[in-house]
Every structure is written in C-alpha cells, then in structure tokens.
Amino acid sequence: MLHPHQPQHVQLRNCSGLTHINAQGKAQMVDVAGKAHTTRTASAEATVLVGERLTALIAANELAKGDVLSVAQLAGIMGAKQTSLLIPLCHNIALSSVRVQATLLEQQHSVRLVATVRCSGQTGVEMEALTAVSVAALTVYDMCKAVSHDICIQNVRLLSKSGGKRDYQRQ
C-alpha cells in the first residue's frame, strides 16, 4: 500500500484526445512542428452592459479617463499580442492582423466588442481573438467603474475560426 504523501508514478494513456495532456496526465504544450503553414483567422465577441447613465457618458465622450471605445480597441489589440504570456500553453504567434471594433449600442445600453485576428502559421488564433475581446471588455469596465460598478461583462465567445484542421462558424 502506498503512503498518502508518497508520489504515485502511474502511467496514464491519453485516451481523452486532449492535445494539451501527456501520457502521465500532465499539461504540455502541443508540438505544432508537423502542421502546415496556413492562413488562420478567428473572430470573437463580448458584450459589456453599462446601463443608461454610462451609455450617455460614453456617447458624449465625457468620462474622466477619456474615449472609452478607442482605448478599448487599443487594449484589445495589445491583449491579443500578449496572449502567450497570459495563457500558459498558448504558442507565441506572429500575428499579421488584429482588428478590434468597439460599438456603443445605445438602445441596449451596452458596448459590443468584436475582434478578428489573422496569422500565417501552424496553429490557430482563437485564443488571441478571445483575449482581445476580454481585455477590451475589462478596459471598458476600468474606464467606467468610477461612475458605476453595476457593469456586466457577458457573452465572451468565439464567433468563427478558419484555416486549421476544423473550421467553425457560430450559428
């Protein structure tokens, strides 16, 4: 019988199909050396519910920290470029394009963020697109929190990806 504090060295087979888990059940970075270089694109979105008062302040560009939509767009671009530093098993990818669109939806009292990321490489850019909209959403929150903490970030999700083994398009 093994002592409870003794390490157990058990060989596990990776039956799950998860590419980030090795035979011992430990996290690993995927080796993409054998994959073809293709143009890969991914888009993601997020929504930030800001409420009526903040919607009016954003529309009039009257927040103390400045132009919320422009700063969120820049933050999203910077976030996409830093993805491999934030997500432990992501590859450092040479991005060829990052576009972040921040739109104030006045009727819904929200900011809609959409990021589209592109590269030519051996692995996809969906994590970069998701990171871009997440950082942009957090930036909207940061710029608006002096007025209200009743801000909700929601629906952070992948919209589409293409160029890899499997394409995806959200219905």
From TrEMBL:
Signal peptide: none annotated. Keywords: Lyase, Molybdenum cofactor biosynthesis. GO terms for biological process: Mo-molybdopterin cofactor biosynthetic process. Gene3D superfamilies: Molybdopterin cofactor biosynthesis C (MoaC) domain (3.30.70.640). It catalyses: (8S)-3',8-cyclo-7,8-dihydroguanosine 5'-triphosphate = cyclic pyranopterin phosphate + diphosphate. Pfam families: MoaC. Its EC number is 4.6.1.17. Pathway: Cofactor biosynthesis; molybdopterin biosynthesis. One of its GO terms (molecular function) is cyclic pyranopterin monophosphate synthase activity. This is cyclic pyranopterin monophosphate synthase. Residues 29-164 form the Molybdopterin cofactor biosynthesis C (MoaC) domain.
